[in-house]
Amino acid sequence: MIPEYSDNLRKIPPYPFVRIEQLARERRSKGLKVMSFSIGDPDLPTAPFIIDAMSSAARDSAYSGYSSSDGEPWFKEAVASWYRNRFGVEVDPSSEVCALIGSKEGLANISRAFLNTGDSVLCPDPAYPVYSNGGAILLGGMPKSLVLSEDNNFKPVLTPEQLKGTKIVFLNYPNNPTGAAITSKELSDLADMVTASGAVMCYDNAYSEISFGDYIAPSVLQSRSDHEGLIEFHSCSKTFSMTGFRIGFAVGDKKVIEGLKRVKSQIDSGPPKFIQHAARVALESYTNSSRPPVVKSYVDVYYKRLKRLVEGLTELGFAAAPPTATFYLWQKIGKSSAKFAETLASVGVLVTPGTAFGQGGEGYIRWSVTQPIEAIDEALELMGSKLQLLRLSLPENSPAN
What is the pTM of this model? Predict the structure, then answer.
């Protein structure tokens, strides 16, 4: 007989998309169209110069062997150079940088270096589920909720009581799922509180390059030159439309980075060298703090899509406003997030219910504008044709009623 799953695995909340995926399968089985706005997987093509770099490296035997689990020296030097150009931050590539097989892997593995069974991890709510699930529960840790409320523009309010006994604090701005942004001063103040308590601050900065207007996302490493108690996670996935490449990096405190490296040395052999080379070439497209043309072009497209989605939802009578950053729209719809998402799925439009990101997400849905304008228009048209059905799925006091 096969043994039962581990206690930690069985504590993971049920997969939130089961019912929505079932509805999507039913539509597809009938030959009906399904449009997905639920996953943050960019549809914009990776730039040719990055593809060419990967292709040439893949043909070169020098890039075919195992990599070190923490990455090749030349890749880590490229990361350090990117930090200098983008944020004005100096880091030691040999001791303060670690390559990742996508930032998600690093966000989960960092906890392995510091958590013992029963240790507390402070996780935003709503938030990317990997913080509480992969970074706490799967390791026997205890996730504690750090509520992000609309009243405070989805920014955390930290207290000494929350930090007491906490080993790791996860924070993420620009924020997934809310699209909220944070200032350098606010981020620095949070970093000071966390590190003064003795906890490690794990800052997920994967969306730093997708921002609109005059807003420029900061790095938590700008808050203190010694980087003590700080680690920041980045990914090439969103910045360069490289999700399938699975390449990211962590930068920060030498002791924290060393702990991550020691964990990874027992688990993986690092990203493929030819992928690291492609990422190096991508990072080198930054020659200063400004986004290079390819990244700017992506951001311009996402902003146009967000504006069109907001305009269309507003025309249909729903409350919506474009975010400061990310390619997500966090739409307030009332109490029944799952019910509203199911109703949308029944007409072929897939979004993510806010409760997929924690109980703090109830009353919201998340749109990912990783579909072209034409698909957004089609989705809005479908919503318009089923408007009464959608309204029936909402409570009377919903902002959409």
Answer: 0.94
